[in-house]
Structures are given as structure tokens and as C-alpha cells.
């Protein structure tokens, strides 16, 4: 979103005219055009009139948000999610929106569509109009996030970025209690189904699982990466070793559900033949059959905490401190895990 928007015109090559097009045609700086619309009293009357005339000729329109831009007070925050269709984000959005509304802010939701290119373009348009950003599941590089944080206050979820405040989940504890649960059930071989390759949380989870497993006599294999979706889980099931492991731990619940559905379609019983564990405790884990054992994350609290962190300075976005925050998780045991099978393993 730019400061001002306009309709495409022949004079601008069929593209919507920008503040720079008006400045070029009027023979002034872009900052002068901005002041002419936002603070006309600070621009010479004749110059302001020329700018308005040129803008009208080009079909250039002022963005309604622009009136708040000179002071930086738009009372708007942005929440960036990697995939708006992922139910994982539902509770984060609910928590963030609730906290923003209580503080008198509007929350702008941006869907990055699992693409750093889309995310970059969306942020470039949104930055002039928002006072702070929550990046949930961002695919941007650490350096790109730090550059963004120099322009607006930023809080990152589920990723630790140096010099930028972050709110992560206790992945090591989640994988430890998962490994302990499977070890108590007699499992000795576990396959980890990986999520997106660029996901910081995925790297943390597989490392934490391997560290926990090493002390419990468990052997961990990894397959992936896969899209963090039910369809990705179905693909992951096809990638499992022919001699199936007794247990599968997935990066998230959607992958886990996809694995369960694919195994069931092949005649493999869950959990008698293969136990499956997810992560997040999204709503569908309670209605699928068997109910999914999962590491429950306080997602609504995470969304609320992110906005609270942004607005921790007298109701306005606070400068970032880089201090991380870790939220607790817990294992929810349902019906997708059972004692490890004995005898030959099904091939599926």
C-alpha cells in the first residue's frame, strides 16, 4: 500500500499513478506532493494548486489512510500469516485481534501464501499504513526481518531472530514429553515428518526430538520436507520406509492428520500398527478418528502476547528490545498413540 493510490492512465503507462508520477509532472519533490495533500498549509499556495491540478489530470487519488501518516498514528497493526487457510492461525488471529481491539487498534491481516516474494510485496505496501507488525510463520530471511524492524516495531512468532523480539513455543519440552510418551509405550523407532524447509520451528523440533530420543534409546529418522497441510501429510505417508516405523511424529497437526488418513486408506491401523503424534492442537485434532495425540500450544495467548508486546509502551508500539519470550506447551494424549506393535511390521 502506497501513501496514495490512483487509477491506471495512459500517462503512467497503464499503471496506477504514484506520488512520484505526480512529483515528476509537477516539477517538485515527492515529499512536497505528500505535504500538499496531508499538510497543505506547509506548501506554497500556487505550488499546492499546481500539484492538485496535475494529480487530477493523472487520475491520482489520495489514500484515506494518508491523513494519519504524517504523525505515524494510524491506529492500525498488521498480522502476517504464511497461509490464511491453515487452521493453525485461527486462534493466533483471534488473540491478536482481541488485544488490538481492546487497545483501540485495527488489525490488518496479510496472507503471504507461503511465498517470501508475496510477503515482501505485501509488507512494502502495508508499511506506510501500519504502526507495528506481527510476523507469524514468516518466510523472510533474518536480515530482511531486521531491516523491516528498523522501519516499524516488529514481533516475530515461532522463530528466534537476533535483535528482534520474538515469541516462541517451548519446542524442546514438547519434543521431550513426546519422546518420553512413546518410549513408555515401548516404541524404539520414530520417523519425523518434516514441515517447510525454511521453517525455524521445524528445525528446532527435529533437533529437539533427536536430542530427547538419544537419552531414551529411540532411533529417529526424518522424511521431508513437506507442505504443512493434510495433502502434504498424505505425500509424507508415501515417503515412509516400506518397513513402517512404529511411531510417526509430525511437524504439525495437519501433516499428522494427512499421514493418518493415508495410512488408513492403505489398510494400516492407527494406532495398533503405527502411532502418530502432531503439534499445535488445532481444532480438527479433536474430531478426527482416532483423536490425535498432539503437543498443545497456547495459540490464542501467543497472538495476544504479540500485540501486547507491540503496544507495551503507553498504548503505542514500543521500540524492539530483542528479548525473546517462550510460551509453555503440553502433551495431549488421545487415541492415535498406543503400545508399539510386536512382530512383523506392515508394509502399508
TrEMBL record:
GO molecular function: DNA-binding transcription factor activity; transcription cis-regulatory region binding
CDD domains, sorted: HTH_LacI, PBP1_LacI_sugar_binding-like
Keywords from the named record: DNA-binding, Transcription, Transcription regulation
InterPro entries for the chain: HTH_LacI, LacI/GalR-like_sensor, Lambda_DNA-bd_dom_sf, Peripla_BP_I
PROSITE patterns: HTH_LACI_2
Occurrences of domain HTH lacI-type (ranges): 17-71
Record-linked SUPFAM superfamilies: lambda repressor-like DNA-binding domains (SSF47413), Periplasmic binding protein-like I (SSF53822)
PANTHER family, per database record: LACI-RELATED TRANSCRIPTIONAL REPRESSOR, TRANSCRIPTIONAL REGULATORY PROTEIN
Protein name per its UniProtKB record: LacI family transcriptional regulator
